[in-house]
Design a protein that fits this description.
Length: 206
Amino acid sequence: MYNTALNYVSPPAHHRLTRPRIEVAPVTGPWQPIAGKRLLVLADVENLTYSARNHLNCKLSYRGLAERMNGVARCCSLHAFFSRPPTEEDRWSRYFEERGWVPHPRDIVTVKTCRGLERQANSDNLILFTAGLLASRSSAEVIVIASGDGNLACDLANAITELPKSRQVVTLSLAGSTAARLDARSNRTIAANIEIGRDCLRPIRR
């Protein structure tokens, strides 16, 4: 889980046509860190969706992931953060609602900058702001950061540990796209890591 694409050193030119093989666990887990606990789950949809597609050639089943967490935890509050085209606002919110997630959409916008027109389609700032509000008001015992993004997850974990109420922070992410700095064995702000397994992935058929 921690020998990730983020830290992958480019091989010699004659080997570059072959991608390094990523070993994915057959089932999601381990569940012990969240079993029987009250959870607040913060999902970085862009990170999870694109990591599954680009590194594993799979689609992530948000319904399956929600069912598995609800099956092991005492209770779950599931929140999905994502960017969307303004013309598809109902479609994506409904998609996550039907799968048991509270949607937190951010409209994709194109803005004029000194570099010309830029398309802004990243929901990290929305995640950081809303996560702080949710975490400060939640009675959850464990806060699950569903992302392999090292900068985002570490910033969130550090901020959560500074809140008056003590909560454990657990990460949930994909093999091949999890930053090494999120390893709970070396990161004191993260209590445990859960890997999304093939039971929550669906192969993309081209």
